[in-house]
Amino acid sequence: MTEDPIALFDAWLTEAEASEPNDPNAMALATVAADGQPSVRMVLLKGHDERGFVFYTNLNSRKAREVIDGHKAGLLFHWKTLRRQVRVEGDVQGVSLDEADAYFASRARDSQLGAWASDQSQPLAAREIFEGRFDEMKARFDGGDVPRPPHWSGFRVVPERIEFWRDRAHRLHERRLFTRTDGGWTEGLLYP
Q: Distance between terminal CA atoms of the chain?
């Protein structure tokens, strides 16, 4: 029964890209603060391969601080139209500077400017303050490229466990669990 879970994820993501009306690459990112308080939010998958699943963020954000401090994260992809989900758990590593630069350069210009203007996760007294900072960044980088801010990069969740869940009638769901071993992956089933 064993197969490559990354290849299986690729197949499921391809199906989701054809069927999901919005953001088939959306994933819930779960982290834990130093005091044990869990936190979850939606982020976008921006790359994946046998090394792991990549997302990008402001390094001063709550999620980044929790990832850096805890070194672990959980991901959840939920594709409602397919009645499927994929859970990923593992260690977290920073992406290389070259990877971060390349992805940042691919972003829309306003998204690049927003990365400079936002103090992500910090209190904001009024929306107009952020909009003013955005306008300042537009003027600052007018006519030139927008470089990646030093406080913005990405993380790779290196999977230790990947669970593929498929809905079945009468809650008789199918759950396949892949666990990383020294020699690759082992696969088993879980009760629904």
A: 18
Three-state secondary structure call for residue 20: coil
pTM of the model: 0.94
Catalytic residue flag (residue 84): no
Whether the per-residue pLDDT at 2 is higher than 60: the answer is no
Residues in the chain: 192
How do 47-49 and 38-44 pair as beta strands?
Answer: unpaired
SS3 of 77-134: EEECCCCEEEEEEEEEEECCHHHHHHHHHHCCHHHHHHHHHCCCCCCCCCHHHHHHHH
Which of 41, 109, 166, 171 is an active site residue? 171
The pLDDT tens digits of the residues spanning 10-41 come to 999 999 999 998 999 999 999 999 999 999 99
Backbone angles phi, psi at 155, to 5 degrees: -130, 150
- Domains of the chain by range and CATH? 5-190 (2.30.110.10)
